């Protein structure tokens, strides 16, 4: 279930409003199509895990209302965020920068996302 965002009414591919970016990013961990995961904390920290290797970074909303990330020592990038909506539920986010697009699905706590033994 997506309770953290259930009060929002959005449509698929709609741009995430600047005021909603913090909630959109911190609602749950994100699983990307390539298998990488990312978690965003309310304090502006983020961890991206690819092939089991974590990378620590920071995120923020810039003066123009875009989501931006910073990866030490000097990589900074800003992205357009759009909602991913399936079956009338917010399922994740699309991150777009120029011709690059990444689709990430929320990993909300619950039985469908529990660790399988």
Structural features:
single chain, 117 residues, mainly beta, 1 helix, 8 strands, disordered C terminus
Q: Helices and strands in order, then pairings?
A:
Elements: H1 21-26, E1 29-32, E2 37-40, E3 45-50, E4 53-61, E5 67-71, E6 75-86, E7 89-97, E8 100-107
Antiparallel strand pairs: 1-2, 1-8, 2-3, 3-4, 4-5, 5-6, 6-7, 7-8
Write a structural description.
The protein contains 1 helix and 8 strands; from the N terminus they run αββββββββ. It is globular and about 40 Å long. It is mainly beta.
SS field, number of helical segments? 1
- Rounded to an integer in angstroms, the radius of gyration calculated over CA atoms is 14 Å
Q: Termini distance?
A: 22 Å
Structural shape: globular
User: What letter string, H or E per element, gives the SSE order?
Assistant: HEEEEEEEE
What is the strand content?
Answer: over 45%
- Strand count, sense and closure of the main sheet? 8 strands, antiparallel, barrel
Percent of residues in helices comes to under 10%
User: Structural class, from helix and strand content?
Assistant: mainly beta
How many β-strand stretches? 8
Task: Summarize, please.
The protein has one helix at residues 21-26, and strands at 29-32, 37-40, 45-50, 53-61, 67-71, 75-86, 89-97, 100-107. The protein is mainly beta and 117 residues long. Strand 2 and strand 3 form a beta hairpin.
